[in-house]
Design a protein that fits this description.
With 157 residues, this protein is mainly beta. It has one domain: Beta Barrel (AOC barrel-like). The chain is built from one helix and nine strands, in the order αβββββββββ.
Length: 157
Amino acid sequence: MYFYKSIFIILVAVFSMDARAEEILTVTHPAIPAPTYIDQGETGESVGDVRIWQFSAKTDKGDVLMTDWIMTTTGIVESGENQYRMTSATFAFGEGTKDQIVIQGIAVYASSKAALQNSVSTPRAIIGGTGRFANAKGWMETEHLSDDTWRHVLHLN
């Protein structure tokens, strides 16, 4: 009997771990402001250039948050038409910085644009969080909409 009881407990634990519910949180904001641009490396568009933003946003649940973005050019396609840029972003909810979700990933950008082109979307990893989002993980899909607004759909597990 002890053997069967142990197997049952193990199976319940395994299925409980796989049954974690995914929470979907949608963040939106209007057109982004011009970034602070730091021209590093060679003069003009080059590897090492950094773009920095900070602006407010809101969730589909009515939460207000501050978003901070740092985007660094990590590679330029030979034709010079596209760049690879690594983004690190933090979504800080409410007052202060207690409740945060941290995002990171890389995407391809048109060299002349500070941001993703309209109607382009890109996935990024959710790499952590603090406060009510402690140990957050999952992924986020960012979409630049045709009306120049933005939607970030966070898939939290």
